[in-house]
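Please review this one:
***
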Amino acid sequence: MADEFAKGLGILTTSGLAWMVLAGWYFTPSFESNAQLITAAPPAQPTVWDQIGIFLTDVFLWFAILGALTFWIGVPLIEQAREAWANRSS
């Protein structure tokens, strides 16, 4: 189970860092305002590269959340279910 925990932590930290960097670039108009990361609006006229970055911001956020939950909850539940199924028939 330590293997799954490490994989989930790795996904959470790397995707979370990528999300924070991209959200800082695209959703922080100034560091003096209260609108940062989640509450700020995206740029008014984004270029193609800006649109890709904004899209990847959402991808990294959801990958961090779902990836960590998959390895911390989903994989252990599946392994326990397989083990219970194998022990049930014997």
